[in-house]
Design a protein that fits this description.
Structural class: alpha/beta
CATH class of the largest domain: Alpha Beta
Number of strands: 13
Largest sheet: 8 strands, parallel, barrel
CATH superfamily of the largest domain: Luciferase-like domain
Distance between the termini: 67 Å
Number of domains: 2
Strand content: 5-15%
Radius of gyration: 25 Å
Shape: globular
CATH topology of the largest domain: TIM Barrel
Number of helices: 14
């Protein structure tokens, strides 16, 4: 695998004490900040209840973000397929593909919050089946096919998109995969991207690696070639100039983050009976809270343990205040990403060559200067 792409997974998470309007504006400012720092991509979530994750339409957010950024790619992370008619959702995403000139990405999943689904009459046990039904239809639509299909929750009659994807042959897609094998099987069936969420502790990584094996198996069963560059891994990180500073920074929001996953979300990242979430995250290997060097070592370990993946995605968790958060991403971009993107090697080789031949070059430069001095003296003497 050539280089490791960088990105974030923006749910987003916002403390109940905050002004939601300003919180959304800060999310937008974060994407502008990352765009300037050369982050490759950002995935924006869809949630409708629970009070902590407050973006209801990632497509609307992406459309606005695309006008404020220049380079970063923007994906739905994810569009919850059971909540939408597949024809209408595919049509909206193709429009976004055109409006962003190919920077939009289409991430899909079954929906993470059970209470979101129940509010519109969907049973948790039906969500993954509905995701698969919808995804199969969406893939056909994006390829320009006409679909007639009726299920218990949609009825399509000669449904065909009126626009082709701007990105050819189709816009980039990915499926969320965590504890359940459903996401890996769906992604592998179409050989599209896989977004591994749910943490990067050793136990979580074992599940993610198992899911990637299912992905490869499904891809080959369907005559497709699995590609590890399409595998994105979502992890938990915060870096500062020192480990002590990083630990101090995360006290700002770490406890509220832990409480949300204990009280509302369907799987706890930090168990509710843990009094010190910082120590738990460090000792369990679930997060990296330290320096850029610590982040490099942590990611290297993930790469080694998984066999390789294409992008490291940081969960935008808001553990630190705004200034410390921006500084974290700057440190990642300046010192961590270059290590995995091999953007410094040629400079180092060039510097080493110049250093190792410094004596020779000084001698040649001095000789050239002296030759000019002698030449001038000879000319004056002749005159």
């Amino acid at each position: 695998m050539s280089t490791l792409r960088s990105g974030i997974f923006l749910a987003p998470f916002h403390n109940l004490t905050e002004n939601p309007t300003l919180a959304l504006e800060r999310d937008m400012e974060l994407l502008q900040h990352l765009d300037k720092l050369n982050y490759h991509e950002a995935w924006i979530g869809e949630h409708h209840s629970g009070g902590f994750e407050i973006i209801g339409s990632p497509e609307v957010f992406i459309a606005a973000a695309a006008e404020r950024t220049r380079h970063i790619r923007l994906g739905t992370g994810v569009a919850s397929l059971p909540y939408h008619n597949p024809f209408i959702l595919a049509d909206r995403m193709v429009q976004l593909d055109h409006m962003t000139r190919g920077r939009a990405m289409f991430g899909v999943g079954p929906g993470a919050l059970v209470h979101d689904a129940l509010k519109i009459g969907i049973k948790a046990g039906d969500q993954r089946r509905m995701m698969n039904e919808s995804l199969d239809v969406i893939m056909k639509l994006l390829r320009g096919e006409s679909v007639t299909e009726k299920t218990d929750w949609y009825d399509l009659v000669d449904a065909r998109l009126q626009l082709p994807c701007y990105t050819q042959p189709i816009m980039e897609m990915a499926v969320a995969a965590s504890r359940s094998p459903a996401g890996a099987l769906a992604a592998g069936r179409h050989a599209i991207g896989m977004l591994s969420i749910g943490g990067t502790s050793p136990d979580a990584m074992a599940k993610h690696t198992l899911n990637w094996g299912l992905y490869e198996e499904q891809a080959r069963l369907n005559g497709l070639v699995p590609d590890r560059s399409k595998w994105r891994l979502v992890t938990l990180m915060h870096v500062a100039e020192t480990r002590e500073k990083a630990k101090e920074n995360v006290q700002f929001g770490l406890h509220a983050f832990r409480d949300y996953f204990t009280d509302v979300a369907t799987f706890p990242i930090v168990p509710g009976d843990i009094a010190d979430p910082y120590t738990f995250l460090i000792e369990s290997g679930a997060a990296c809270i330290g320096t850029p060097d610590d982040a490099i070592a942590y990611i290297e370990n993930l790469l080694k343990g998984s066999g390789g993946f294409g992008a490291i995605m940081e969960l935008a968790h808001n553990w630190a205040d705004w200034d410390a958060t921006k500084r974290h991403y700057e440190l990642m971009a300046r010192y961590v990403h270059p290590h995995f993107q091999r953007s410094r090697e040629l400079r180092r080789d060039s510097y080493a060559y110049a250093r190792d031949h410094h004596g020779d070059f000084i001698g040649q430069a001095s000789a050239a200067v002296q030759a000019e001095i002698d030449r001038l003296a000879a000319r004056k003497a002749a005159e």
